[in-house]
Amino acid sequence: MRHQLRWRPTAHARRLATLGVLALAPAVAAGKPLLAVLGAPFLTLLAFGLSRPPPDAIHAEATLDRSRCLEGEDIEVHLTLSTDGQVDLIGATFEVPSTVEFAPGHQPVVTVAGATAVDQRVVIRARQWGRVTIGPVRVRLRAGGNTREAEVAVRVGELAVYPEPSAVQTVLAGQRMRNRTGDHASRIMGEGIEFAGVAEYQLGDSQRRINWSASSRRGRLYVTKFATERAVDLVLLLDALSDVGPRTKSSLDASVRGALGLAQTYLAHHDRVGIVALGGILRWLGPDVGVRQHFRIAEQVMTVRLDASYVDPDLARVPRSALPPGALVVYFSPLLDDRAVEAARDIRERGHPMLVVDVLRVEPTPPRGSKDGSLALRLWRMDRVALLHGLRSTGIQVVQWDGAEPLDGALRALARVPLLARSS
Question: What is the pTM of this model?
Answer without folding.
Answer: 0.77
